[in-house]
Amino acid sequence: MERVCVTGAGGFVASWLVKLLLSQDYIVHGTVRDPCDEKNSHLKKLEKADENLQLFKTDLLDYEGLCSAMAGCSGVFHVACPVFPGPVPNPEKELIEPAVTGTRNVVNACVKTGVKRVVVVSSVGAVMLNPNWPNDKPMDELCWSDHAFCNQSQSFYCLGKTIAEAEALELAKSSGLSMVSVCPSIVIGPMLQSTVNASSLLLLTLLKDGHESLENKARTVVDVRDVAEALILTYKKPKVEGRYICTSYVVSMKAMADMLKSKFPYYNYPKSFTEVEEDVKLSSEKLQKLGWKYRPLEETLADSVQSYLEIGVLSKH
Ligand SMILES: NC(=O)c1ccc[n+]([C@@H]2O[C@H](COP(=O)([O-])OP(=O)(O)OC[C@H]3O[C@@H](n4cnc5c(N)ncnc54)[C@H](OP(=O)(O)O)[C@@H]3O)[C@@H](O)[C@H]2O)c1
User: Fold this and answer.
1) CA distances to 57, 101, 168, 175, 310 from 63, in Å
2) What local confidence, expressed as pLDDT, does residue 279 receive?
3) Among 150, 155, 313, 294, which residue's Cα sits nearest to residue 228?
4) Is 200 in the pocket of ligand 1 (CB under 6 A)?
5) Quick one: pLDDT band at residue 316, thresholds 50, 70, 90?
6) Does the active-site annotation cover 45?
7) What is the pLDDT of residue 278?
C-alpha cells in the first residue's frame, strides 16, 4: 500500500481527493490546521478512514510540521491554500505568504523527506490574467498570468497562485523532484465538508440570493470529483511533468441558472441578468490527452443541490 500526504485535507477539493485515495487503498497522511475542529470531522467518517487516514496538525508556514506529516510518504498532493470569497484586508499576509512561502515549504519538505513525486494544485488564476495572450487563441499551459496585471486588478489570490506555481516548478526541477501542477477552473460540485467553501458560493448565490439583477458573466467550471480524478491521474503517470489545465465547461451565469431552474424551479433565482462583453477560451486538451474525462454539467448541478440540502445550507423549498 502506497503512503501519500495531502495538505489541507479538510477543504472542499482535498476532501474528495482523500476520499478517492482511500477508496484506491492508499494510506493517507492529511494535514489540517486543527484536527479537533468540527469542520474536519467529516474526514473521519470517510470509508477506510479508520484504518488508513492519519491526520497531522500543521500550518503551511510550519516547515518542520510539514516534514513530520510527509515522513514515510512517496507522494504529496499539495492542495492547501487560502481561498476567500472576496477581498481581504491584508492580501500579502493572508493570501500571498501562505500560497508562496507555503508552497516553497512543501516542495522543500518533499526534498528533505525523500518524497518521490508531488502534485501541486495551482489555478487557472495563474493562467488567465494575461492581457497579452492573442484573443483568438484558447489559453493553454503556455499562458501565465501577468504579475503587473494581477497587481493592477488587485487579483492578489491569482498573483499568489502564479508566483507559487512558477517557483515550485523551478525549485522542483533544480532539486530533481518529480512535479506536476494542475490548474483547475472554478470548482463546483457536491461538498463533503459541512462549512461552505468560497467557490460553492457561485451556485448557492444563484439558488438563494434572489438578486434583482446579476451580470451574465461567462464562468469556466469543473466538477470537484473530476478535479480529484485529475490529481490522481497525473500523479500516477511519473513521466508527466509541468502544468495541466483542468476545466470542463465555459458557461454563462444565466445558462447555469436556467439549468438549475429546470430541475429545481422553486429557488430564489436572480430576477434578471445584464449582458457583459466576454470571450473566454480555455483549453484542457493536454489533460484530456492523458485520458482525463469529465461528467455532464447537469449531473454536477443536481448533485451539488442534493449535497446542500443534506448539509443544511439550502432548504428544500
Ligand atoms: N475552489 C476553486 O474554485 C478552486 C479553483 C482553482 C484552484 N483551487 C485551488 O484548490 C485548492 C483547494 O481549494 P478549495 O476550494 O478546496 O478551498 P477550501 O475548501 O477553502 O480549502 C482550502 C484548505 O487550505 C487550508 N489552508 C489555508 N491556509 C492554510 C495555511 N496557512 N496552512 C495550512 N492550511 C491552510 C484550509 O485549512 P483551514 O480549514 O484550516 O482553513 C483548507 O483546508 C487551493 O489550492 C485552491 O487555490 C480552487
Assistant:
1) 12, 10, 15, 17, 37
2) 84
3) 294
4) no
5) confident
6) no
7) 83
Minimum-distance ligand 1 atom for the alpha carbon of 33: 40
CATH 3.40.50.970 is right for the domain spanning 3-188+220-247+279-295:
no
Residue 244's nearest CA partner among 289, 274, 297, 189 is 289
CA of 317 to the centre of ligand 1 (A): 30
Higher pLDDT: 1 or 123? It is 123
Q: Which residue, by CA, sits nearest to atom 37 of ligand 1?
A: 8
For 133, other C-beta atoms within 10 Å of its C-beta total 19
Helix (H, G, I), strand (E, B) or coil at 48: coil
Distance 92 CA to ligand 1 centre (A): 16
The closest-lying atom of ligand 1 relative to the alpha carbon of residue 80 is 24
Contact 270, 257 (CB under 8 A): yes
